[in-house]
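Q: Trace token order:
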Amino acid sequence: MGGIVSAHASPILLGSYGSSAPNPGFANTATIYDPLDSTVNNGSNATFNISAGSTWHAPTGNSSYVSYNALTGPTSNFVTPNGTYVYTTTFNVSPTDVADLGTLTVLADDTVSVFLNNSLILQSAGPMGPNNSYAKCSDVGPNCITPFTFTFTGLTEGLNELTFDVKQVNGVNEGLDFSGSLADPSDPSAVPEPFTLALFGTGMLGLLGLSRRYFAVS
């Protein structure tokens, strides 16, 4: 269970780390794998920190790339089947912090959708096609090349869950990295740099009727 997030002057940090690795100081639990909702059902929730090598952008913050398999990163020859790979993490929020602004920066191969308490807050890149070759990972964000930063609201008192639906579209490598914070929206440090900012109010994209599997992977 995630620790209680109490009233704070400084942002509360969030980030990805494997279930087999120590918590580097984040308020959330280890990122675990959901085998039942994922393409590869290996019967285990375990996750592993994996290396970005020279192919992916380096992890953001103090986070680590994670995967259900220690060999899915770009430093291995393991080929991950196309499909969806679902990861979750949880954290607790106190009544005084439900109005906080959340900020996340994500990296994923090939791309990723993000949900807060089952509401879509970040849409993944679309399917392979003329405008997206998936030569390495998605040509557009969110991808494994350029950190994609966005903000969200909609925290609830008590337990909150972030779900990351990693889309594997063109085989080979698979992995997820995220880092971020929860902070008072009046705090200037709560707002990320505008060059990567994409604002998504919780449930806003949900109005489009999109689901975790909003497109058919190739």
Q: What stands out?
A: The longest strand covers residues 83-93.
